[in-house]
Design goal:
Layout lengths: L4 H10 L2 H11 L8 H9 L12 H16 L21 H11 L2 H18 L3 H14 L7 H8 L3 H19 L4 H20 L26 H14 L3 H15 L7 H9 L4 H16 L2 H14 L12 H9 L19 H6 L20 H13 L3 H10 L8 H15 L14
Helix pairs in contact: 6-7, 7-8, 8-9, 9-10, 10-11, 10-14, 11-12, 11-14, 12-14, 12-18, 14-15, 15-16, 18-20, 19-20
């Protein structure tokens, strides 16, 4: 079969060598000088790159900026090189900076600094009258000064209303300035309120003794929450006491007692636990437990806890005020004697030192976890304390606490005790007492 003549001529023309070379050269080069095959490859691979003549001015500027960043990536090192060519960073010298500040500060600012240092030194030396005089002079010069330790002086001098006013002002100043909850100031304000209520009960006053105190506004919802574990639990304890929330108070107290561990003795292994308390959680737990017992009128329990807090203090002149507070409390209450520690039989402390160390890891995020990792807390300590606290509650208290939590509050006293105990153990993240396995958090 023969092909038509015109088809044979067309095939011969297309297969001519010179025509093939010309077509190949045209396919590899576009009129604008761009590679045609590379463009086809970019399109097939989904690339967004375009020839310069097809991009907008904004895209071209972005491309040039990315190229400049790649070229300058090794030129500037944050914290080492200066943004100004030829300039040098200032040397970090605290003493020199402080000296320059003293030279530039006004006479009023220098006086504020001197009075603050004088009051703090007198407080550490337990000279409350001297400290109170210095802090009063400070607030005369600068009424809005931030010095919440002045409230501690007022508290231990027995002027609870002036102390509450001082803590309120300092808390509001701190929270408005740093957008963080002033938890310690709020704890001390609650302690003042509890003390005033205790005094009104002794004097059989019918009027609300705390009505004359300055109002304490709730913290801003957008403020950063308290992340210090012991401080957060201590605030829950004082708040529950003021709100007469017995079950929450029992739970918070059990958490703090679990962090405290066992009563210290002359055993070297037990004394060595103080060295592991680098964040002073045991010190804070013992002290705030003692302060709470003191504010609620339980002198014996407060005495034991404050003595234990005193044992956690380091020797020497520490800059942290918490190291001086147990000694201050003992001195003002005149508790220095040779009495032995009276261990609480209702709260069994573990002799397992690994469990005690694990008890130093409560997490700020929730129930009992102290660190972000899973840890095993000595659940028997918390369970024993909860069971003892529930067993001492009256029938009306059991009913009120169950109603507060939306749980059925009818039945015999033993039934209500079991019901509340189960609720508190669940809130603590613990298993039922029938299970002897420690709870992992």
């Amino acid at each position: 079969m023969s092909l038509p003549k015109h088809l044979v001529l067309t095939l011969a023309f297309l297969c001519h060598p010179k025509l093939i070379q010309t077509t190949a050269a045209f396919s590899t080069s576009s009129p604008g000088g761009e590679s045609f095959n590379s463009n086809r490859k970019n399109i097939s691979n989904g690339s967004n790159s375009k020839p310069d003549r097809y991009i907008s001015a904004a895209q071209r500027a972005r491309r040039e900026e990315e190229q400049r960043r790649k070229e300058r990536i090794d030129e500037v090192v944050p914290g080492k090189t200066s943004a100004i060519p030829g300039a040098k960073d200032f040397e970090i010298n605290i003493q020199r900076t402080e000296m320059e500040w003293n030279v530039q500060a006004s006479g009023e600012m220098r006086m504020v600094k001197e009075l603050t240092a004088k009051g703090m030194e007198a407080l550490r030396m337990l000279k409350l009258e001297e400290a109170d005089k210095a802090f009063d002079s400070l607030y005369e010069i600068k009424p809005n000064a931030y010095c919440w330790q002045a409230g501690i002086v007022k508290f231990y001098m027995g002027d609870y209303r002036a102390a509450a006013d001082c803590f309120t002002k300092n808390a509001q100043w701190y929270e408005s300035k740093f957008c963080q909850v002033a938890t310690e100031e709020r704890i001390w304000r609650l302690a003042c309120e509890l003390k005033i209520k205790m005094q009104s009960k002794k004097n059989r006053s019918v009027m609300d003794a705390t009505s004359a105190l300055p109002p304490m506004r709730d913290p801003d919802l957008f403020s950063q929450k308290e992340t210090r574990k012991v401080i957060r639990i201590a605030h829950e304890l004082f708040t529950a006491s003021l709100e007469n929330n017995v079950s929450a108070m029992v739970l918070a107290r059990a958490k703090l007692r679990s962090i405290c561990g066992q009563y210290d003795s002359d055993n070297k292994d037990e004394v060595s636990l103080v060295k592991t308390d680098k964040k002073m959680w045991r010190l804070y737990s013992w002290y705030y437990l003692g302060l709470h017992y003191d504010a609620t009128g339980d002198e014996n329990a407060s005495k034991d806890c404050i003595k234990m807090a005193l044992r956690q203090c380091v020797s020497g002149n520490s800059s942290d005020i918490i190291q001086s507070l147990p000694m201050l409390h003992m001195a003002r209450r005149d508790w220095f004697d040779d009495d032995d520690f009276e261990e609480d039989d209702g709260f069994l402390y573990s002799n397992n030192h690994e469990e005690i160390k694990a008890g130093l890891d409560w997490d700020a995020s929730g129930n009992n976890a102290l660190s972000g990792t899973s840890s095993v807390v000595s659940s028997s300590n918390v369970r024993e304390f909860i069971e003892k606290s529930v067993s001492t509650m009256k029938l009306a208290e059991l009913q009120n606490e169950l109603k507060r939590r939306g749980v059925k509050s009818t039945g015999s006293k033993s039934v209500l005790m079991d019901r509340l105990r189960q609720v508190l153990l669940e809130d603590a993240g613990l298993k039922d007492s029938s299970s002897d396995e420690p709870q992992s958090y």
